[in-house]
Each structure stands twice: as structure tokens, then as C-alpha cells.
Amino acid sequence: MGRSFQWMMAGMLVVLATSAGADWEMNMTKGVTDISQTVYSLHMIIFGICVVIGVVVFGVMIYSMIAHRKSQGAVAANFHESTWVEVLWTLIPFAILVGMAIPATGALKQIYSKGDPDLTVEIVGYQWKWRYRYLSDDPSTEISFFSNLTTPPEEISNEAPKNTNYLLEVDEPMVLPVNKRVRFVITAADVIHAWWVPELAVKKDAVPGIINEAWTKVNVPGIYRGQCAELCGKDHGFMPIVVDVREQDEFDSWLVAKQDEAKKLAELTSKDWTMAELMERGEQVYGTFCSACHQADGSGVPPAFPPLKASPIALGEINKHIEVVVKGVNGTSMQAFGSQLSEVDMAAVITYERNAWGNNTGDLVSPMDIVNYNAEQ
Amino acid sequence: MTTAIQNHSSHDHHGPAKGIGRWLYTTNHKDIGTMYLWFSFSMFLLGGAFALVIRAELFQPGLQLVEPEFFNQMTTMHGLIMVFGAVMPAFVGLANWMIPMMIGAPDMALPRMNNLSFWILPFAFAMLASTLFMEGGAPNFGWTFYAPLSTTYAPPSVTFFIFAVHIMGASSIMGAINIIATIFNMRAPGMTYMKMPLFVWTWLITAYLLIAVMPVLAGVVTMMLMDIHFGTSFFNAAGGGSPVLFQHVFWFFGHPEVYIMILPAFGIVSAIIPAFSRKKLFGYVSMVYATGSIAILSFIVWAHHMFTVGMPYAAEVFFMYSTMLIAVPTGVKVFNWVATMFRGSISFETPMLFSIAFVILFTIGGFSGLMLAIAPADFQYHDTYFVVAHFHYVLVPGAVFSIMASVYYWLPKWTGHMYDETLGKTHFWLSFVGVNVTFFPQHFIGLAGMPRRIPDYALQFADFNMISSIGAFLFGFSQLLFLLIVVKCVIAGKKAPAKPWDGAEGLEWTVDSPAPYHTFEKPPKVE
Prior knowledge:
The complex is a heterodimer of chains A (about 375) and B (about 525).
Chain A: H1 2-21, H2 34-67, H3 83-111, E1 119-126, E2 129-134, E3 143-147, H4 153-156, E4 174-177, E5 182-188, E6 193-197, E7 202-206, E8 212-216, E9 222-228, E10 240-246, H5 248-270, H6 275-289, H7 291-294, H8 312-315, H9 318-327, H10 343-355, H11 367-376
Parallel strand pairs in A: 1-5, 4-10
Antiparallel strand pairs in A: 1-2, 2-3, 5-8, 6-7, 6-9, 9-10
Helix pairs in contact in A: 2-3, 6-10, 10-11
Chain B: H1 2-11, H2 20-25, H3 29-57, H4 68-103, H5 111-130, H6 158-185, H7 198-229, H8 243-260, H9 263-277, H10 284-297, H11 313-325, H12 327-341, H13 350-373, H14 375-381, H15 385-415, H16 421-447, H17 462-491
């Protein structure tokens, strides 16, 4: 019994040790924050205790199965209760549980600890993408952007070889400074999502109408990938999270560049656009925001996602078309894109929809048309 | 009056009616039990077919066979059919067959209601399955149907789903009332509560859980119905409601529900292990109290399914501690089974093999359950394949294996024939290997970070997913062998004696095999 126990423990250790370096990843990540390391050790402690209990219990069981077989002439004993044994195996597990609860409560306390954040990022879950807004006391320096899956559809449909970051790559990652306490405020625009990055050990539900809080302080610069963890509809498996953690100075220059970009966008809104410029930009926007449902060729997936090609809305009155895109359609999957798209992108995509796939209306919708539409509302 | 009495006495000795009427109008607990079991098995195959669609799609990364929309319908329907259509009716079927025979009663206390509670089930599941052919598809929001995905964003078929759940709930509540009434009123003289077989005890407690929580389920789906069709905002934040309220109400039903699916299994295993260890069950009294404690604790642990929803620190701590406590009575049960085997005289017929596998694999599911109870660690486990591995370990080699064990154990009593032991053992080993190959690797991919309910996954999860899918097909197709064994045993086989297992105990073994259509018309005496 003692011998076999040692062998089993040795076997377990070998499995755990070899798993660490192998491609066949099979354990929780240690991660790159103090909390993720605490959680990892806690996980390993509880796992270890379970293994020991398992070895003892299954050991006795397997011993009985070998030694007390009827075919070996075993004769059954007739004991069937023993108060002190029963009291003992109620109290010992209870004591073990108390032993587990102590470090678990400590870890929980650490996760829930309060502190002044150096940076606050608002995370909003959408079907099926994330929006990050870097909050600031001065609204003119606030930046906000969407983070969309960039894995090409051909890779998903097995028409092209899959790249290493298959399904875990986005157009614009969340960028964070290293060694700074970052506060997340998390919510959702439609259904429940959950923002999860294993290496940060942060998983928090994004619930519409409720603002949740979490925080992290990343110790090592690098790129960390995660996924939405709460079933949120059709493309739940296709809304990854990428966090790009940089040194403070690199983060600062990124932030300044983003703020400049926002300023430029404001200038773009007032510029005079040509049809060709709008069509080019519109095609990109359409590919990112619309084609998942309405399809790249505008054919849709009726009845859930109507076609735009030759659709009464795309060929009809311009203001009605703008209204559908800005406000969405109640009771359907068509979202309100007013808060998601800039005036420039909104104008571009509407122009594109009215002129692509043979919808040749010749209408040009400029960013200022959208500004005027919004002003009238 | 006299004629009525005479009619009644001639009525006592007739056998089953002929033709389809026997099954439609029957009030006989054995007939109804049989129908429940066959219904459950057909749902098991249907839900299993859905599972195989899921595993086939996940065999490799990329989208090969189904669209994400349909994949979500498969995960949802698989869960609903297995929980409400396969596991629960199987236990009710076993209760119908065995409880009257175990307590020395002639039938269930409320036979007409018994007929009704079975016959509404096929309609409920026909309605649920028909949603697959509706415009917009079947429910696609997971078996836990979190709002607002299941309300504002749901396909139109959600209304049919709600109605089907109502019917299932009504069936369960009627079944539970019947079981409680039978156990309270129809025990043979001398069959005191503390002499009842554990299967009867665990079902008594399960029936109370059912009566307590099925109305909560009915409430939550009714609130959904109101939100969808009548303009209320229970779960709609825009109207002042809360999606989190849905989860609280759902899991207040949902956690006792998972014990509804496991307590009767404890009872079955507590009958089979002593029988094949030829030794009395160790710690009968503590088994009864442990079952009661688990049932009571099940009402105060629900929010451990919601650790990431954004609860305050105090709530996290409370639900973590209360959940961990469940390990104590559950541990007592496992220790009792092991102590029963210890210094027994053990033989390994098919029911025993399934029961031993139950104890080991259910305990593994218990360990992962304990790990999931640790709130800070759960932030990493939550909604990953680790959870999928956990609940499949307690439900497949847990609940399902116990049902298979009981079928093999009582088949000689039901059919009057012995099943084919070689085929039975083959079925066991195929199932045992299949289940572990399917679900053990899911622990690894979950820890490595694969979320559940996704139709496609990143490349680092590919190898284990492929293994898991192979195991699933092995397990799935092995169940056709089970069908073959049962059919073969019903048709023919070696004649079974009244008590085919030398170590078995209980009143059911005092009647002939097959059990006569009416048993214990005169109550037996129990010392």
C-alpha cells in the first residue's frame, strides 16, 4: 500500500512536470500578475490535496477489490457501523476544508482589494466584439475604439492554412502600461458577455445595465490573449481579446498617437468626400461590421439577416436608411450602430450599401449628412 | 354495493389489458415504470446524437459540418434533452418500478395521476424537438437559457420551449407527489422509515427537492414569457429589470436540480455495492442523514454558478464556504461505500462494475467540484471546458452509470430472464473507456483556457479535442450494444430465479421473476 502510493505520487509528478514544457498544454497558466500567480498556487494546492485524498480512498477501494474477492475465497466480515470511524471521517474532511478555505479567502481578499487606479478602461461587450474606452477627466483626450476578430473567413472555413493566433487575433488590441494598476469597468450593450484573459486571471461578466469592476497590474510586458467566456449568440466563439502590455513610455506614445487619430477623424468629418473615397472606406467598414450577418456580397442569411442587395431600404429614402443603421431595428439582431461607428464610417458604409452589388442609386452620403441627421434627433 | 365489491375482487387478479390500450390507459406502476424507462432511453439516444454532432464539429479546428447558429442549438438541445428527458425520467421510471416493490405496496398511491404524469412527457418533448424545424431554429441560448439572450434576442421558438418546460415541470411535480404519498402511506406493516432501502430514502428526499424547485423553474420561464410577449421587464435592464435576477432565480432551481439527478443514484449504488460485496451497507443511518444534509445544503449554494457575475466580497465568501461544506456529507457517502466493500466477498457482475466505476468517477467529479467551489480559482475555471468535464463526470459516469447499473441489477426481476453477462461486461468496458477518453482530456483543455459552448477553437486545443471526440463516438455507439442486450433479455434468456444475486436484500427479491403484474396485494410482514 505504502509502496504503490509512492509510485502513484511519482507518476503524478512526472505527468505534471512534463506537461509544463509540452505542446499539449494541460494546466492553468501561471500568468503575469501577482493575482494570477496566487490563483495558480491555490489551484495547485487544492488539486494536490484532492490527489492525495483520491489516492488514499481509491487505494483502499482497489485493495479491497484485489484482496477481498469472492473468487479468491474471501468471506465477508459483518461489521456495518462504527460511530468513532464515522465521526472521524466527518471531522477530518471538515478540517481539511478549513485548511483550504484559509488560502482561498486570502486570495479572494487580494482580488477584491481596493486601490487608486493609474488608468481606467471601460470595456463594453457587443455581439460580437469589444469596445475599449480610455477614461479621462478631459473628455477631449478620451479615446475609444472597437476590437474585432481579424482571422480571415477562409481560415475558419478551412480554405486557407490557419495561422498561429487563429481566432485569437484582433485589429486593435487593448494597450496597457506595465506595472500600473489598471481599473476595468465592464458592461455590455446587448446580451451578457464575459471578458477573460487567463494570464491576467481576470474574468468578469459584462452584463447589460450593470457596471462591474475588476482590476489588474501586469508585471511583464507582452501580448496576452483571451476570449469571451459567456455564451452570447452566434459568434460567441469569434470575439477574442488581445491585451498588449507595454513599457510606460511606449504606452504614452501610443496614447498620444490615438488621441491625434481622434482629432484627425474630427477633421475628416468636415472634409468634402468623393464617391470613390467613400466607397473604399465603406467597403472596409462593411467588412468589419456588417458582413458577418449580411454577408460580403450583400445576400444576407434570410430570414434572420435580410439581404441588402436590392433591398427596399438600401434603394429607398436616404434618411430611413440612416435611421436603420444608427438606431438599429427593435426586436431583431440589427444593432444600433450610432454609438459604434464614427460619422465618417457611418457615411461611408451607407454610401457603400447604396452603390455596391448593383444597388446603383448614385447617392453620396457625406459625414456631414450624418452629423445633421443626429442633430435633428 | 355488493356487486361493486365483487367486481373489485374479480378485478384484482386479471393481467394486463391487450393491445395499445394497455399502455395508454394503464395505471399499473410496472407498466408506467417501463414506459418511463423506454422513453428515457429514446431521449438518451436523441440527446446523444446531438452530442455527437457537437463532438464531430469539434473534432478539428475550423468550421466543417455545421454553422455556429446550429451548433448553439445542438448544445442547448443536448443539455435540455439529457437533463429533462433522459436522466430525470429514468429515475422516475426506476422509482415507479421499484419503490412499491421495495416497501411492500401493491402500487403507487395515485395511479391515475401516475398515468397522466407519464403521458404528458412525450408531448412536451415532441414540442421541444419540433422547434428544430421552426423558422429561426431551435433554442440556441444554452440549457441555462440566460436572459436577455433567451428573451430579447431569442428565436421565436422560445415560446414553445417555455411551454414544454412547463409541461415537464408539471410531470415532475406530479411524479414527486405520487412518490411521497406512496412512501408515507403504503409501507407494509413493520417497514419503518429507518428500515426503508436507501433508494426509497434518497427518492423521498429527491421528491421534496422536486416539489420545492420545479415551481421556481416554472416561475422563471413564466417571467421570460411575460418579458417576451407582455411587455414586462423582469430581466430587461432598459426597463428597470436585471439580467442577474434571472441567474439567481434559475440557479435557485438549478442547483437542487443537479442533486435531483444524483441522489437517486446514491440510493441505487447503496443497494448494489452491498449485494455484490455480500456485506451489509456500512453506515446506513449516516447515509440517510448525509442525503438529508446534501439536500438542505443544496438550497444555499446556488450562486457558486455565478462567481464572475459581479457579486460583493461577502457573497463570494458565503457561497464558497457553503459549497465546500457539501464535500463533508458527500465524502461520508463515498467512505461508506468503500467501507462496505472493505473485507467483503466481492464479485464483479455488470451492475457491480458500473457501481464501482460510479464511485471512482463520481468522486473525481466531486474533486473538480471542490476545486470549482474555490471562488478565486473559479475565476479561471468558470465557463471553460473544466466545468464541462466536471459536470459530465458527475452526470455520465455518475447518474447515467447508476441507471445502467440498476437496469442490469433489476432486469432479471423485470423480464424473468438473465441478461448476457459477457455482453454486459463488454458494454461496461466500452462505456468506461469511452467516457474517460471523452471527458478526462476536457479537464486539460479547460485549464489551458478553452471556453465552453464555442463551435471553433484556437490551435493549442486541437489534440485533446480530437481525442475527446473519438471517445465520444466510442461511448455513443457502445450504447447500441446496451439496447441490444436489453432487447435480447426481454425476448429470451436463461430463466431468472426470484433472487438471482445471492447477496441482494430487499422485498423485491421475495416475489417471482418476472414480477407478477400485481405484487403485494396482501402486504408482506417485515420484521
